[in-house]
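Need tokens for this chain, all 113 residues.
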Amino acid sequence: MPFLGNLSQISPTANLALSKSTSSAPKETANQRLSLMRKFDIDENKLSQIIQPVLLIASKDDRLLPSEAEAKHLNNTFPNSQTITLPHSGHAWLVERDINIYEILLSANFSVA
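Here are the structure tokens for all 113 residues:
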């Protein structure tokens, strides 16, 4: 659990749900997903052709994946992208108390219609 985020920023209800979901997944499933991520390869030339706006949200305190470095890389790949880095968030930032995805989208002038 500490790898997923700062537990003090996650409500007790969300913390319990997160704990149940991570403990119920078999170890083989986690290994398989990590293996798929290692093997994942995409043609960056194709990504650079995407002209729709792209919002990249990274977590500075992500201890599971290098989301900040990946967001910087993708920001250089997508021609119409912007990055927001959450300075005190971990991998599971969507369940943190003070995170509101709607407000993040508005602050980035992203259409939420």
